[in-house]
Each structure stands twice: as C-alpha cells, then as structure tokens.
Amino acid sequence: MRLDGFGLFVNDMAVMIRFYRDVLGFEISENENTSNVYLVKDGTLFLLYGRKDFENMTDRKYNYIKGLNGHSEIALYVDTFEEVDIEYNKAVAKGAVSVLEPTTEPWGQRTCYISDPEGNLIEIGSFNRPFRQ
Questions:
Q1: Sheet bearing 5-10, strands edge to edge
Q2: Domain annotation for the chain: domains and CATH numbers
C-alpha cells in the first residue's frame, strides 16, 4: 500500500472551491454545485467531498469541529524562504485567515500557517532549496 492522496470533508462546497481555486491556485474545473472535487496537485490526489454526501453514502452521522481546528494540516512547499513570505502575503490578501506569520524555525525551516474557510490548517514552508522526494 502507498499513500495516494488526502481529502477534506466540507460543509460548504462552493466556498471551499473558491478558496482552493482562487486563493491557493488549485486547478479545480468542477462547478461550485458539485458534491465531489477530485484533482491531482503536484502528483498528489486532493479531494473535497461534501459531508452530507459522505454521510448518505456511509449511512452514518459524524461530528465536525467548527472554527479553527488542529486535527491535521495541509503542507504546501515552496523552494525559497522568500516564496514563503510572498505566498503567505498573497493568500492573506485574498482572504485566507492568518494563523502564524512567516517565521524561521530553529530546525532551519521557514514556515507559516493560514486556515481555509472551514478552519483547516494550511502550512506554507521551505527549507530554502527545491523539494526533494
């Protein structure tokens, strides 16, 4: 088995599509009335799936945290420290909520955090070199 991707169960699909498409630049072709967004970003599968649709599919009800949550994070990598600051400032200017302004950590990473409209944490970080797999 190998990790193929990740997904978010979302409450308001239209708002989340606009955020990931218009604020972070993900190429989302589905319209805002869809129940499922399936895309590959930089070789990683990324899904947005409507909560109600998932509940109907599994015939279960789930509890969801409202507001900023610390369940997980989406990590986005850029090649340089300067790009961390640039991407952070662009995202905040377009409406992302700032959680942590860009800072250089003792372990050598420049990082920052924003959140999407449903409170999911997104890290933008760099070790000041191109990404290595």
A1: 5-10, 44-50, 36-41
A2: 5-58 (3.30.720.120), 73-126 (3.10.180.10)
